[in-house]
Specification:
Mean pLDDT: 95
Low-confidence stretches: none
CATH architecture of the largest domain: Beta Barrel
Largest sheet: 7 strands, mixed, barrel
Number of helices: 8
Structural class: alpha+beta
Pfam families: CT_C_D
Protein name: Allophanate hydrolase
Number of strands: 12
Distance between the termini: 40 Å
Keywords: ATP-binding, Hydrolase, Nucleotide-binding
Strand order of the largest sheet: 5-10-8-9-7-6-11
GO molecular function, one term: ATP binding
Radius of gyration: 20 Å
Length: about 290
């Protein structure tokens, strides 16, 4: 689609590149925003790429909004035949204790806000996606890798897009009304996105489990997280690995001591390779830990 430009107040320009989530739109977004960053335009304060869009904060006393819009339109046109198609990134293993007692206790307190009050979030997600039971659904959720297409909403929260053909992707609506509580490091799901809640707080995504892996570190206590305090970056690829309660306790204790060491491998993501054979590509991503 043609980009849609919307001004938000006097300092922000929001640019929508697609009405649906596509990795093609994500790569178009980072191509434009990387070009804007390299040009170092006077008056541009902050550049924030997102799932299929991006936003720019600017100083209206140094650059006119319409001037910035024209500049972005020109970048988009000039890059149309030469957009970024590869990304040097990481594959990260994220251990998940599915159907854990903490998210289960929380979701039971908010059943009056849910589409199916007599079932758990996992049971509901399994049913509407055609799986026989929660075990089959957990297998499906953890069997494919996930592409981090955006980090935000709250500090450090990654939105992850399933690396699978669209017709095979898991789809689950959010709660009918948001909860006022969600445990920290809950693995959630809303629409076509999985996420990990970086902090405890309100939320509307379905809750499938919890990870012991710290992903947000304002205290500076986790050596695997740098001074930005945020672990994930757009373009990271995540492999969820189911763990049991005993393994969770071991890893959670390591995290409490500041000794958690995630399994990470460098990786070059190739958009063309993925689009030619998404199933085979996803299988090869999983093999990096073999």
């Amino acid at each position: 689609m043609s980009a849609r430009y919307s001004f938000a107040g006097d300092e922000f320009l929001f640019v929508e590149l697609s009405e649906e989530m596509k990795l093609e739109a994500f790569f178009r977004s980072i191509s434009i925003t990387d070009r804007l960053r390299r040009e170092a335009i006077d008056g541009v304060i902050e550049i924030c790429p997102a799932n299929a869009s991006y936003q720019v904060r600017y100083d209206p006393d140094r650059i006119d909004g319409n001037q910035l819009k024209a500049l972005l339109e020109r970048f988009d046109t000039e890059l149309a035949g030469n957009r970024q198609r590869t990304l040097h990134t990481r594959v990260i293993e994220v251990p998940v204790f599915y159907d854990d007692p903490w998210t289960r206790e929380t979701l039971m307190r908010f059943r009056d806000r849910h589409q199916q009050p007599d079932a758990t979030d996992l049971e509901y997600a399994a049913r509407i996606n055609g799986y026989d039971d929660t075990a089959a659904f957990i297998e499906a959720h953890s069997a494919t890798p996930w592409f981090v297409s955006m980090v935000g909403f709250v500090a450090g929260l990654p939105f992850m897009y399933q690396m699978a053909p669209r017709e095979r992707q898991i789809q689950v609506p959010k709660y009918l009304r948001p909860r006022t509580d969600t445990p920290r490091q809950t693995v959630g799901y809303g629409g076509c996105f999985s996420c990990i809640y970086s902090v405890r707080g309100a939320g509307g995504y379905q809750m499938f489990g919890i990870t012991p892996m710290p992903i947000y570190d304002p205290a500076g206590a986790q050596p695997h997280i740098d001074a930005s305090m945020i672990y994930f970056r757009p373009g990271d690829v995540v492999k969820f690995t189911p763990i049991d309660d005993a393994r969770y306790e071991v890893l959670d204790a390591q995290a409490a001591r500041g000794e958690f060491v995630p399994r990470v491998m460098p990786y070059v993501f190739d958009l063309d390779g993925y689009e030619r054979d998404p199933i085979g590509y996803a299988a090869r991503v999983k093999e990096v830990f073999a």
